[in-house]
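About this split. The held-out portion is used to measure sequence recovery: a designer receives only the structure tokens and must propose an amino acid at every position. Recovery is the fraction of positions where the proposal matches the reference. Here is one held-out target exactly as it appears in the evaluation file.
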């Protein structure tokens, strides 16, 4: 689920135009390292492989897109992806406890740590969505084809190119398909990788969506809540005087809006939103239950925590006041359930992985665009682990829409960039 933040990205482009490329801020050692890897005969052969096998990559993209992977139901696609990884050639592979696909390609070093390159298995579309691909020239139309089935196809193309050209890396590489990246999945797959699994992960590259210039090294944090107000309910006339959950919800929303609006007018960008309101049975009934879903985001983890605190204070104030002023019946109750928790954070742009991504982009003739978003990388970024999210090439349009489509314009170029970043981070093994 890669979302462009146009203001941030325009700002970065202005900085690049005024001060020059981010690479110019430090020495050229990394640039030279990446250039040498790119010039390696086997790497050039791998680039040619990606060009000549682009039809196979598109066929893979179509096959995986047509396997539904709605939220919390990624198993069928996971099994297909696992089988494709095994056919491409991998050392060991499995599906973990939460549904992530894990495939190890061993490196030459004895270091037990691994570099992860991943794409997410899930899409935002519910069960029953028509995911059949319609093709017209270089355009493929289907929900989820870019976000993030393109990432999965790119992973497989990279693995095939490595194996076809006998490229060995120093570091172990884990090819991973994660579950639960989208929406209420709340990054559950990548959270498991970093907080519950026994994997020793040194760095993390997520291929999410399309394109070949962005380098996301900053995580946009968010807190999401389902808030449910409940009371006895009754007839709007006969039971008048009971605490009305809908009225309490409205008062809580009003208090939150006033306080959050004042807080978010200065400082690092922070947002808040009531996205949905549900409940009630009829116009002449006091509802027994109403609920709302609330989303808060911030570039700053500290400010995210503070706007969250404002939210809780607003809810508690509204409930206390309405219960105090009720005319009859029992007090109203409220249940505040956290349904999404994505931490903010950032990896410094001078960190080696970010610089390798910048160098790879420039050496392939493009201008890198640095920025912030909410992706699988949020978790390792928040833990201080070198992490980035990049695109898988081509052009994606109308992401998260039933009208989503993918245009295979310079499609292999984005995969070449991902391969070059991967090899520069993992290291080419010496030729024996």
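Reference sequence for scoring:
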């Amino acid at each position: 689920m890669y979302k462009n933040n146009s203001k941030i990205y325009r700002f970065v482009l202005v900085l690049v135009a005024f001060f020059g490329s981010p690479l110019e801020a430090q020495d050229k050692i990394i640039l030279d390292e990446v250039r040498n890897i790119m010039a390696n005969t086997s790497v050039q052969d791998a680039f040619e492989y990606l060009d000549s096998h682009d039809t196979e990559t598109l066929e893979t993209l179509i096959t995986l897109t047509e396997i539904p992977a709605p939220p919390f139901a990624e198993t069928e696609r996971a099994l297909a992806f696992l089988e494709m990884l095994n056919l491409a050639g991998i050392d060991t592979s499995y599906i973990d406890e939460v549904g992530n696909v894990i495939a190890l390609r061993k490196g030459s070093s004895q270091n037990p740590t691994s570099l992860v390159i991943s794409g997410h298995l899930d899409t935002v579309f519910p069960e029953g969505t028509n995911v059949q691909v319609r093709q017209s020239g270089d355009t493929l139309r289907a929900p989820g084809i870019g976000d993030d089935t393109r990432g999965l196809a790119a992973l497989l193309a990279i693995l095939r190119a490595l194996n076809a050209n006998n490229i060995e890396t120093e570091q172990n590489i884990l090819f991973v398909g994660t579950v639960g990246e989208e929406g209420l999945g709340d990054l559950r797959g990548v959270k498991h990788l970093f907080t519950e699994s026994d994997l020793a992960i040194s760095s993390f590259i997520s291929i999410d969506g399309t394109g070949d210039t962005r380098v996301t090294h900053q995580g946009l944090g968010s807190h999401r809540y389902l808030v449910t107000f409940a009371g006895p309910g009754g007839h709007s006339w006969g039971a008048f005087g009971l605490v009305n959950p809908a009225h309490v919800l409205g008062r809580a929303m009003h208090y939150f809006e006033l306080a959050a609006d004042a807080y978010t007018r200065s400082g690092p960008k922070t947002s808040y939103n009531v996205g949905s309101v549900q409940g009630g049975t009829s116009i002449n009934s006091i509802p027994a239950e109403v609920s709302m879903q609330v989303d808060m985001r911030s570039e700053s983890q500290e400010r995210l925590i503070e706007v969250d605190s404002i939210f809780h204070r607003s809810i508690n104030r509204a409930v206390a006041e309405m219960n105090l002023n009720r005319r009859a019946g029992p007090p109203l109750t409220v249940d505040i359930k956290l349904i999404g928790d994505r931490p903010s954070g950032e990896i410094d742009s001078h960190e080696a992985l970010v610089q390798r991504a910048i160098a790879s982009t420039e050496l392939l003739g493009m201008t890198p665009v640095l920025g912030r978003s909410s992706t699988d990388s949020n978790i390792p970024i928040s833990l201080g682990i070198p992490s980035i999210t990049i695109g898988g090439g081509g052009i994606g349009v109308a992401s998260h829409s039933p009208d989503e489509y993918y245009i295979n314009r310079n499609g292999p170029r984005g995969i070449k960039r991902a391969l070059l970043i991967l090899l520069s981070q993992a290291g080419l093994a010496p030729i024996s």
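Annotator remark: The first strand starts at residue 92 and ends at 95.
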